[in-house]
Amino acid sequence: MTATPSQPEPPPMVPCAPPPPQHRTRRRHTGHGRRRTGAVGDLLVLAGLPLIAVLALPAAFAGGGTRRWFGGRAEGQRAQAQAAKDDAAAAFYELDTAQRDLRISIETIMAVDDSPAARRAVADFEELGRRIDEVSHRYISTVDAHDLDRDDLEASAAARARSELTAAKDELGRVKRDLDRFGEGLGPLLGKAETQLARLAPAVERARQSLLAASNALDAVRGSGLRADDLAARLAALGPELTRLNEGAGRHGVPQTLERAERVTREAEAVRAEADRLPERAAEIDTRLVSLRTRAQALTTRAGQVDPVLSELRRRFTAACWQDLQQVPDQAAETVRQAERKLAEAQAARDAQRWPDATALLSTVRALLNSTDEAVSAAGDRLRQLNAVQKDPQAEIERTRFAIRDAQRLAMAGRHTPDPRHARPLDEAVARLERAITTLEGRHPDYWHFLTETEAVRRTVSRVVAQIREERGGGH
Fold it and tell me: Percent of the chain at pLDDT above 90?
């Protein structure tokens, strides 16, 4: 016989726990032979396993302390509870994301809008934030209160966890829907805020570019020999405003920064436009100085011609026709002298490049010369009018009567009787004309009184005509 090599001793056998009841029941129905064969087979299988595995098997077959391999009601409840936990976590994440997105919108509105509607929106968001904190705290407390990974989780505990987690998910969903509705209502405010924010950077850049353009225009003007001190002072005053613009809207506020940028742009563009026009303005002032000086000289000559006109008026007409013109020569000479003094001051202001002063003085000179021109012209006009009415007073009478008849026809248009408001002043105009005509009788008629009366009658008639047309045009 061949010697059999010695085998190591098998590890000590650990008694196996009795099989679960259902397993024992199933074995009672088998034959004795099969029961014996199964036991031997089991022994051989166990003999071939490592010691640790063998030691672990009894615990795997034990009834308590571990999850059951074959499922059951507890495992089903655990799965449902875990699904409810996952759904609640998803709802919590959605709510948190929506809140963070909406907070950005609220901060955008707060940065731009300080209206009552914006303040109310901020307060409503804060109230929603408190609700979100409450439901989030209850959700986290519910998650912490249920350990779904416990080996000994009972079916009742799993069912309770599922119910509470489902309730937490529903509550998170309700708050999320409220938050969504609130966000939809922010549309107008958010649109306005975003529009202003979109305008901010371009507005600030326009202000900077306008300041640069004004500075360049001012340099060009100074290079041509014009000082433009007033424009330089206005441009320097915008320096602090540029500093505030550079500090940004975060410090000074979006609306205030927008308003500042627009104001700086307007003022800088005005400085640039005036700087560009300054050479032309200087040339225009020079031209006006020459023109007004020439006009003053011409008026001096014309004022000297008033005395012969007055002499003829005195010789041919009554004192009432020329007495108000007696002071015209002296007044004209004095006014011209005042104009010449102002012209000298305007020239000095132009030489000093005080453009606003020069412009104002030239306007004063023009007004003085205009009044002198009217006074000097009045004497010649008076003589022409008196000559015309003396030659043919009937032409003035017919002219006035035609105006009255035209107004009377308009007052009667579409009516059987005229409106007393129109008829009365027209009747008074007729009577006044008749009285004026009587002043022409006698050796020395007061032609000037006659002319002023007929002119007054025509003005009255013109007012009545305008009133009638206004009333009929307005549907009265």
Answer: 37
Q: Which residues contact 151 (CB under 8 A, 6 or more apart)?
A: 65, 66, 67
Check residue 216 and report its DSSP letter: H
Whether the per-residue pLDDT at 260 is higher than 60: the answer is yes
Alpha-carbon Rg of the chain, whole angstroms?
Answer: 55
Q: Which two tokens stand for residue 316?
A: 């041919």
The C-alpha atoms of residue 20 and residue 11 are separated, in whole angstroms, by: 25
**pTM across the whole model:** 0.48
- Banded model confidence at residue 271, pLDDT cuts 50, 70, 90: very high
Q: Convert the pLDDT of each residue in 116-136 to its tens digit.
A: 888 898 899 999 999 999 999
Q: What angle do CA 315, 319, 321 make, to 5 degrees?
A: 90
Helix (H) or strand (E) holding 321: none
In sequence order, the 6+-apart residues with CB closer than 8 A to the CB of 304 are 329
Confidence of residue 191 (pLDDT cuts 50, 70, 90): confident
What single DSSP character describes residue 186? Answer: T
Contacts 24+ apart (CB under 8 A), 195-203: 196/112, 196/113, 196/254, 196/255, 196/258, 197/108, 197/111, 197/112, 197/254, 199/258, 200/249, 200/254, 200/257, 200/258, 200/261, 203/257, 203/258, 203/261, 203/262, 203/265
Query: How crowded is residue 203: how many other Cβ atoms within 10 Å of its Cβ?
Result: 19
196-201: long-range contacts, CB 8 A cutoff, minimum separation 24: 196/112, 196/113, 196/254, 196/255, 196/258, 197/108, 197/111, 197/112, 197/254, 199/258, 200/249, 200/254, 200/257, 200/258, 200/261
Within the chain, how many helices (H) and strands (E) appear? 17, 0
